[in-house]
Specification:
The complex is a heterodimer of chains A (about 110) and B (about 110). Chain A is built from no helices and 11 strands. In chain A, strands 2, 4, 5, 6, 9, 10 and 11 form a 7-stranded mixed sheet that branches. Chain A is an all-beta fold. Chain A is globular. Chain B is about 0% helix and about 55% strand. With about 110 residues, chain B is an all-beta fold. The chains are: A mainly beta (about 110), B mainly beta (about 110). Chains A and B meet through strand 5 and strand 10 of A and strand 5 and strand 10 of B.
Chain lengths: ~110, ~110
């Protein structure tokens, strides 16, 4: 199995632009998580899905952030409009049982 | 008070010695406890998890849990330079989501 796949791996954009991050979980995993990691705040859970249904989005910082999971093999995290403080590494993780497997992350820089 | 607290380090340990990493948590309802390792520029990877009070061993790694003290630790025996990384403690409640500590940066000196 290829593991959790994320794209793009790096994204540089200007303030105000829309950013879409993509994730393909490991086949058969029933949970999908979106995290954000910064030096200041560490690794924070943004939202998670169970069987494609959003369960808890209390970590989404504000309305500029939205996430979807239209099917079991694909999820997106969208930021519109983006701001410099959104610069971070965004990880997607999927889980079956107790083990979460993280994707390689998307390093986002908003100028 | 942060939900999961770790000493940020850096923790420096000579090669071959035992590295001891500590974590405290605030939610007494926490059910599951995890240790992740993260190399610089990489994603976190699970080392081991523990549910019950006491020790759990896996190779050179031992996780220790004391729910009364709300304390989790990770011991790494015979430390190797390849163990140099940031170690993240994570705690899960009934809600299935993990809360991570800030991580402890560990350096093993040859």
């Amino acid at each position: 199995d290829a593991g959790v796949i994320q794209s793009p791996r790096h994204e540089v954009t200007e303030m105000g632009q829309e950013v879409t991050l993509r994730c393909k979980p490991i086949s058969g995993h029933d949970y999908l998580f979106w995290y954000r990691q910064t030096m200041m705040r560490g690794l924070e859970l943004l939202i998670y899905f169970n069987n494609n249904v959003p369960i808890d989005d209390s970590g989404m910082p504000e309305d500029r952030f939205s996430a979807k999971m239209p099917n079991a093999s694909f999820s997106t995290l969208k930021i519109q409009p983006s701001e410099p403080r959104d610069s971070a590494v965004y990880f997607c993780a999927s889980r079956l049982g107790e083990t979460q497997y993280f994707g390689p992350g998307t390093r986002l820089l908003v100028l | 008070q942060k939900e999961v607290e770790q000493n940020s380090g850096p923790l420096s340990v000579p090669e071959g010695a035992i590295a001891s990493l500590n974590c405290t948590y605030s939610d007494r309802g926490s059910q599951s406890f995890f240790w992740y390792r993260q190399y610089s520029g990489k994603s976190p990877e699970l080392i081991m998890f523990i549910y019950s009070n006491g020790d759990k061993e896996d190779g050179r790694f031992t996780a220790q849990l004391n729910k009364a003290s709300q304390y989790v630790s990770l011991l790494i025996r015979d430390s190797q330079p390849s163990d140099s990384a940031t170690y993240l403690c994570a705690v899960a409640s009934w809600a299935q989501k993990l809360v991570f500590g800030q991580g402890t940066r560990l350096t093993i000196n040859p």
